[in-house]
Amino acid sequence: MATSSGATSKPTATQSIVDDADVPTFDAVGGDWSDIAEEAARLGEERIVVNMGPQHPSTHGVLRLMLEIDGETVTEARAGIGYLHTGIEKNMEYRNWTQGVTFCTRMDYLAPLFQETAYCLAVEKLLGITDQIPERATVIRVMMMELNRIASHLIALGTGGNELGATTIMVNGFQAREHILKIFEMVTGLRMNHAYVRPGGVAQDIPPGTLEAVREADGQIRKALRGLEDLMLANPIFKGRLVGVGHLNLSACMALGMTGPVLRSAGLPYDVRKANPYCGYETYDFEVPTSTDADAYSRVMLRFEECYQSLRIVEQCVERLHAMGQGPVMVADKKIAWPAQLAIGSDGMGNSLDHIREIMGSSMEALIHHFKLVTEGFRVPPGQVFVSVEAPRGELGVHLVSDGGNKPYRAHFRDPSFNNLQAVSMMCEGGMLADVVVSVASLDPVLGGVDR
Amino acid sequence: MTDPDATPTGVTPTELSPAESTGPEQGDRTTIDVVGVRTGMFGAEGSGDTSGYNNLVSPIVMPGPSDRPYGSWFDEAADVLAEVLEDAGSSWDAAIEKVVVYRGELTLHVRREHLVEVCQALRDDQDLRFELSLGVSGVHYPGELGRELHAVYHLVSVTHSHRLRLDVAAPDADPHVPSTVSVYPTNDWHERETWDFFGIVFDGHPSLARIEMPDDWPGHPQRKDYPLGGIPVEYKGATVPPPDERRLYH
């Protein structure tokens, strides 16, 4: 695919990466496939490269797969990415620490709360205030993340089914996710891209009635999961397409840095929530399901099981939130905490009238404080940290560098989808063309996170 | 620096200790880690300085090297790594520039010539066993002369439940760092990304092509000297300048 760049020749940005001047090409944009195959045979050209994507419906977004095929067998598979690169990391260097949340939430758009939490944990670590985050905020974060994990897995299962032609699975998956998105909308105001988790805590407390809504959704999600299981797991066509497909054993997983359900399907119970707990995960009662089949079917099974484990954690969160009663959800340090109390007004969500009255009417210091924190933000001591959380697709790492300013000096996200897509070659080569779709679906890549 | 003219005015060479008279070297263990200097405030230029803030000068100092004991499991791991490097015909002092322990995280600043052998030792020795790499991330410090480009490696030991970070610096004039793909195949795409965004050339990488930007893209977008771009946006009668032209708070 690309020429190797040795130590002596310096790679240049504008050089063509492949010398294809004398390679015949066959354009397959419409027309009859057999005509093209005939022409290829006439020319004695046996190497057929099929370009799948970047706008193919079964590649989970704008992923481009370059497949060299021999008949129906894939002899070489390469993934091309970058079609959804938005420069979020670069943009974050020009916004203050709090504004960074609104950027990183848009990376992996199916798991926004994981990016927000990972980023905020990193900012808090740099600030050295990890211990000062109110318990209530941490429990809310955990509850939101676990609900988000279920929502993300439901999409993974649903779109995975859709790619096999089973639209019912997709519709059921999306319907079940709707229960969770309703809760997200209730708590954060948005269904996606919440910017709800903020450095120091969360943007606002959960509104009254949330815990009841979560309890109600719990039952509905369980029902939907059972329905999906009935639809998928024993289905002979589904099993015929998934069992033994997309095999990736443990050593390959470790070499390729795979994490999440793919690694656990190979038998290693590595989960950041257990291995390197954050947000108090060590105090929750849950299990890390594993399998040793290392195929696409076992990854589906694991995603179902993880949904049930997440529901267990959500139930514990609901109990804790119920037991602890009202309390602060933002760090007490007024030099860091966002200086506003949100409330619903006649024109939607905004600053509460009490807060406006205080800063405009009675306390000039509070007004200055509000102004400085909102326009300038807070400063973070220089240094670098790396924080990871267990996202639905694997380990999400944040490498955050501060130079002591009010903006991140560098924010890098180690997105699990980005890393896991490297396994496409290993999973697909030697298999059938139709299995490529299944293998990619079992990785569950989200291209927003891959390209950032 | 034996020339007496090079010493500060009014100080004779005998008044300075040998360490001081040679001047701070880049990467010297005794110097603080200055990566840049901030001047002024608010980023306003071209108008009269009525506030006096424009005279502000403050160095950007990163957490400096830590001395033993590092704490936690760090000392033991450092001992083992030193031993393994010794056995491999290298040494700790040759390979490791400095150790930084900050916020409970261990960072080994590795000299780039020794990066691959350090990775190999960290991965293979049973007492270290950092078998999982979480990729490479680049950082550009234009103010740190001679060490502008940093490649940062995040390693995890699943076996021992440890985490550490390797930080490798390269000058902008010679942006070469050896590739670690032979030790951690997962770093393939991560190194391509770091090349793409920072222009660090990973020698020995199997195919160091751009990964996120188009193949014919000029420049490396996440370097500090690469502009963010953007246009002024009009909103309700006011004009909002692009983010990199807004007021700066130094």
Describe the structure in your own words.
The complex is a heterodimer of chains A (452) and B (250). Chain A has 452 residues and is an alpha+beta fold. Chain A has helices spanning 33-42, 88-92, 100-104, 112-127, 135-163, 167-188, 210-232, 236-242, 250-255, 261-265, 272-275, 296-324, 353-362, 364-375, 416-420, 424-428, 433-443, 447-451; strands spanning 48-52, 64-70, 73-80, 197-198, 201-202, 342-345, 348-351, 383-391, 394-402, 410-414. Chain A has 2 domains: 97-334 and 378-426, Cytochrome-c3 Hydrogenase, chain B, CATH 1.10.645.10; 342-375, no CATH class. Chain A has 18 helices and 10 strands. In chain A, helix 6 (167-188) packs antiparallel against helix 7 (210-232). Chain B is an alpha+beta fold. Helices cover 18% and strands 26% of the residues of chain B. Chain B has 5 helices and 11 strands. Chain B has helices at residues 18-21, 74-87, 92-95, 115-124, 187-198; strands at residues 33-39, 57-62, 96-102, 105-110, 132-140, 149-157, 162-170, 176-178, 201-203, 233-235, 238-240. The model of chain B is unreliable at 1-29 (pLDDT under 50). Chains A and B meet through helix 2, strand 8, strand 9 and strand 10 of A and strand 1, strand 2, strand 5 and helix 5 of B.
Element layout with pairings:
The complex is a heterodimer of chains A (452) and B (250).
Chain A: H1 33-42, E1 48-52, E2 64-70, E3 73-80, H2 88-92, H3 100-104, H4 112-127, H5 135-163, H6 167-188, E4 197-198, E5 201-202, H7 210-232, H8 236-242, H9 250-255, H10 261-265, H11 272-275, H12 296-324, E6 342-345, E7 348-351, H13 353-362, H14 364-375, E8 383-391, E9 394-402, E10 410-414, H15 416-420, H16 424-428, H17 433-443, H18 447-451
Antiparallel strand pairs in A: 1-2, 2-3, 4-5, 6-7, 8-9, 9-10
Helix pairs in contact in A: 4-5, 5-6, 5-12, 5-17, 6-7, 7-12, 12-17, 13-14
Chain B: H1 18-21, E1 33-39, E2 57-62, H2 74-87, H3 92-95, E3 96-102, E4 105-110, H4 115-124, E5 132-140, E6 149-157, E7 162-170, E8 176-178, H5 187-198, E9 201-203, E10 233-235, E11 238-240
Parallel strand pairs in B: 4-7, 8-9
Antiparallel strand pairs in B: 1-2, 3-4, 5-6, 6-7, 10-11
